[in-house]
């Protein structure tokens, strides 16, 4: 039997999913972060499959999303995109600390994953937290600086007037570079990383992720099985069933055995 509970940490809501038989045990632990404009409940199918395998899983609610929404329009929300990413990265540590201190998460078996914005969060978190033992990014990308420039170009092409100065952009970049894994690939430290991306993705460019993979895979020459890139030739911004299965198998392989 799988238990799904709504809980709060620092007044922030999240879902906790675990097998009833292991409810009080110290288990391998996965934090799965949702995408932009999504909500924690939308990823219960991922959590259920993890829990069935014996993981303890939590689905945090990102700031300005779901139960934490503040009535922002999608366009307003987009203006807070990087604030949401950075805030979520910081909040991940609080969840990890809580579950490890409670004796419910094995500190040597902690995984991070997410879709889209959640994948971007996951890859940024690898620059900050050595406690992440394995990671999966579905439709995310690590090149924060390049992606910001891409976002600005997209808005310009759409005729959206930008109310930001060059100085503000440079300030934003100076913050983002601290979390940009493509600028500090040594922070990966050969940790298991699976990347899944649809080639026709119009939201998070496939090329940004694939280029990063090509640049770092040589660093894994002593353990090449620890990095893998799955290209879906036909997918746009939606994870396939194959991508879902590959993620579950990745964590089984790298955190359970």
UniProtKB/TrEMBL annotation:
Keywords: Hydrolase. The keyword Transport does not apply. Coiled coil: none annotated. The lineage of its organism: Bacteria, Bacillati, Bacillota, Bacilli, Bacillales. Residues 89-255 form the Peptidase S9 prolyl oligopeptidase catalytic domain. This is Peptidase S9 prolyl oligopeptidase catalytic domain-containing protein. Pfam families: Peptidase_S9 (PF00326). It comes from the Bacteria. GO terms for biological process: proteolysis. GO terms for molecular function: carboxylic ester hydrolase activity; serine-type peptidase activity.
